[in-house]
Amino acid sequence: MGEGRGEGAGEAKNNVMKKQTVTYPLRLPASLKAAVAEISKEDGISINQFVATAVAEKVSAMKTAEFFTSYRAKADIKTARRILLRMTDVRLT
After folding, report:
1. What rounded mean pLDDT belongs to the chain?
2. In this structure, are residues 73 and 83 in contact, taking their beta carbons and an 8 Å threshold?
3. What's residue 93's pLDDT?
């Protein structure tokens, strides 16, 4: 589509972003909000971007822990120890 007849590339991208985000009112202790404001200013990012990144990091950490917890039950400790013991026999030269 041409520029005048429909959405331009920038408008389409903005509409996609609007569909993918939600607003969530967040209450923070004043001291924590001040620390976030200071750090985000030093990093040259918005408070929103800082908080979104922090939440994404926390979600990632929790999902990673969940992943390894689920595989821990399937672990074969005896085989793992045998493999590790074989590795100690390898000499680096």
Report:
1. 83
2. no
3. 45
